[in-house]
Each structure stands twice: as structure tokens, then as C-alpha cells.
Amino acid sequence: MEPLIHFAIPFAILTMLGIRPKVAIPVSLLALVPDMDVFFGIHKWFLHSIIILIPLGIGLSIVFLLRRTGLRNYAPLGLLAMLSHPVLDVFWNYTPILWPVYGESIWINLGINLQAGSSLGIGHNVGVLTQPTSFEAFTTLDAPLVTGAGLIIFVLLVILPVLLMEIRGRRSWL
Ligand SMILES: [Zn+2]
Fold first, then answer.
1. How many Cα atoms are found within 13 Å in the side-chain-facing hemisphere of 101?
2. In this structure, are residues 43 and 141 in contact, taking their beta carbons and an 8 Å threshold?
3. How far apart are CA 89 and CA 7, in angstroms?
4. Is-contact 44 89, C-beta < 8 A?
5. Quick one: DSSP state of residue 154?
6. How many angstroms does the Cα of residue 174 sit away from the middle of ligand 1?
7. Which of these, 159, 107, 163, 166, lies nearest to 132 by C-alpha position?
8. Distance from the CA of 4 to the center of ligand 1, in angstroms?
9. I need a labelling partner for 29 at 20 to 30 A (CA). Which of 14, 139, 153, 162 fits?
């Protein structure tokens, strides 16, 4: 799944919970941490495992809690934002979400098609697929960074709500 969607989904949830964009933006940026593995030449490496991310996130949370920054109260939400990444990826493609406890990469394939036309049809190909996890360095990155659908989701879940909050905030000053 592309970075814009990984950012947009926790951002939308946080702002729906009433958290200001000023806080929701840095917290949601933590959802991009698992894709830092591309800088090491491997996509979907150990940072896509919740077995690795949970202790790493708890460690980072403790560092935030010990430092007296304004964001320390949001450290647990940052952990959840980080965990949202492999959870979303597992519905997108093979993800080593339970590595190294479970050596297979998992894909929860929700291939559901609802078609309307001369007759109404529902097709489904729902299943949990697995394949052995192998961390291989890529020579060229073939993952999309931005797609048209991702851009539309980003505008609807991030840009539009922030603009509406801004407009509503200005009205309250009148
Ligand atoms: Zn990913």
C-alpha cells in the first residue's frame, strides 16, 4: 500500500477522535516508519512485523515519555499508527506480519466484486494466502509511491477535513 494511504488512514481516525492536525500529523507520520526498510534495499523487511514493531514502538514510547515533549501523551497512539502499517499491508499483499514467530508472509485477500448491469452479481475470492518469507534486496523498487486512487483518498481524508476545520475555526472567531 502506498505511503499517502498509510498516512491518511491514521490521520483521519485521529482527527475524527478530536485530535488536532498539529498532533495528528506527526503521530500519523509514524505509520510510514515500516517503509524505512527501502533505504536498506529491502521492501517489506523486519519492520513490517508486528512482533518487531511492538517492542520497538514501546521502546520509542518510553523515550518519548521520558523526554518532556508536548507529544509524549500521544506516544501510545504513535505505536498504534506504526502498527497500522503492516495491518493495512496484510490486506494488500504478502506481508511478513508475524516474522520471525511465523515464517510465512500473509495476505488476507478480500477479493470482493459487486457488479451491477443487466443482472446484479457478486463475485468473491476471499482467503488467507501464505508464502515463505524471503527478504531479498531489490535492484529496482517496483512499488507505487503515488497513485491516482491514493491521491484522491489523501485529499478526502486529509486535505478536505483540514480545510473544513480551518473554515469552521475561522467562523467561530466571527
Ligand atoms: Zn509497507
1. 7
2. yes
3. 13
4. yes
5. H
6. 44
7. 107
8. 11
9. 139
Q: Give, as one character, the DSSP assignment of residue 157.
A: I
Cβ-contact 12, 82 below 8 angstroms: no
Q: Which residues of the chain have pLDDT under 70?
A: 68-71, 141-142, 170-174
Per DSSP, the three-state class of 16 is helix
Q: What is the Å distance from ligand 1's center to 1 Cα?
A: 6
Are 78 and 34 spatial neighbours (Cβ–Cβ below 8 Å)?
Answer: no
The Cα–Cα gap between 121 and 110 comes to: 16
How many CB atoms within 10 Å of residue 10? 25
* 74 Cα: distance to centroid of ligand 1 (angstroms): 23
Residue type, 168: R
pLDDT given at position 96: 95
pLDDT of 61: 78
